[in-house]
Design goal:
Distance between the termini: 74 Å
Oligomer: single chain
Order of helices and strands: HHHHHHHHHHHHH
Radius of gyration: 30 Å
Structural class: mainly alpha
Helix content: over 70%
Shape: elongated
Largest sheet: none
Number of domains: 3
Strand content: under 5%
């Protein structure tokens, strides 16, 4: 640090070197014993620029790419980061599909479950509507209906629906919020408001 807190040529050289290497500004400030604002102002004064897309990639890029950031052209580095990310996402999706297929296979072997129970179990395990529909010879819409929360009980059984509505009113009287009741029963807040309006 120069007299009266001025920057020395050595300070400027270090700022140029670190900034070109995509060192975060707070780290540069810490190394030089200055505030972040002062370092940002000095970077503007020195007219330093760095590729913003590279800087954003550095937030999530793997260490083996981060360590070579200055070896690449910015576009090449960015493309390498996104290629790595696509590979990771593809591997995660493939792993998830394998888990779901294994779970569905185990559900199919379970002789204690009827068709509808198997469909619900597969949906809970993460299988898509289309996969389940293909396996059981149904449409996606029919699978969706069977797997929607409370479709058979609340939608098509009057006695069960009356019991559910009575339970909702009791919860409302006990002090539960409409939002909590709606979440618990898979209803909209508007529907809960309608059911509790007369209470």
């Amino acid at each position: 640090m120069g007299p009266l807190g001025m920057f020395t040529p050595e300070d400027d050289a270090r700022i140029r070197e670190w900034y070109a290497a995509y060192v975060p500004v707070p780290d540069i400030a810490r190394q030089l014993g200055r505030s972040v604002g002062v370092i940002r102002q000095r970077i503007l004064t020195l007219e330093l620029r760095r590729d913003r897309s590279v800087y954003m990639c550095l937030k999530w890029a793997p260490d083996h790419l981060k360590s070579r950031v200055t070896d690449f052209d910015p576009l090449v580095f960015r493309d390498a980061c996104f290629a790595w990310r696509r590979e990771q996402q593809a591997a995660a999706i493939a792993g998830r599909r394998k888990q779901v297929a294994k779970a569905c296979s185990a559900i199919d072997r379970d002789r204690t479950l009827d068709r509808d129970a198997k469909i619900r179990a597969k949906r809970k395990a993460g299988a898509t509507l289309q996969v389940i529909a293909d396996q059981h010879g149904l449409t996606r819409e029919r699978v969706r209906q069977l797997t929607t929360s409370g479709w058979e009980v609340a939608g098509y059984n009057k006695e069960a629906r009356a019991n559910r509505n009575a339970k909702i009113r009791a919860e409302w009287l006990a002090g539960a919020s409409r939002q909590a009741i709606a979440r618990q029963h898979g209803l909209s807040v508007t529907r809960v408001r309608q059911l509790t309006r007369t209470v």
